[in-house]
Amino acid sequence: MGGVTESVDVAVPVRTAYNQWTQFEEFPRFMEGVQEVRQLSDTMTHWKTEIAGVKREFDARITEQIPDERVAWTSTEGTRQAGVVTFHRLDDTHSRVTAQVEFEPDGAVEKAADKLGAVTHRVKGDLKRFKEFIENRGQETGAWRGEV
Fold first, then answer.
1. How far is residue 74's CA from residue 58's CA, in Å, rounded to a whole number?
2. pLDDT mean over 119-131
């Protein structure tokens, strides 16, 4: 199983960054290759992705969610992946968002892309787009403050 860890500093309070991250259905606005995310329940999401011409649909279970600290997940079917996003207060108006993603490449194309650093590049780009999205808005599009 491969893995990547990337971080980005954002010019919003940690609460704002966390609240926006809990709005999973907004992910296609800043995650490349994510076509749709539907929140099925407090702990289940359904994803539609297309990356390098490969379309996938899968469900992911939120395994841990602590407001202003972390959101962790794992896929429940298909390609194995899991991860955690953590939120760190830098000061009253800045925070650091760190994504750790573990995945198991499926097939020759995905294995080759992994060896070339495509997943690292993708996660880094998604975090950069998240930074632009939340800083340009200045506030979250919604929030879910429950714990899992």
1. 11
2. 94
Q: Quick one: DSSP state of residue 137? A: H
pTM reported for the whole predicted model = 0.92
Structure tokens at 15: 């609460």
The alpha carbon dihedral of 96, 73, 18, 70 has a sign of negative
H helical segments located in the chain:
14-21, 107-115, 118-137
Tell me, what amino acid is at 2?
G
C-beta separation of 33 from 27 below 8 A: no
Compute the half-sphere exposure of residue 56: CA atoms within 13 Å on the CB side of its CA. 19
- Residue 83 pLDDT level (bands cut at 50, 70, 90): very high
1 — pLDDT class (breaks 50, 70, 90) = low
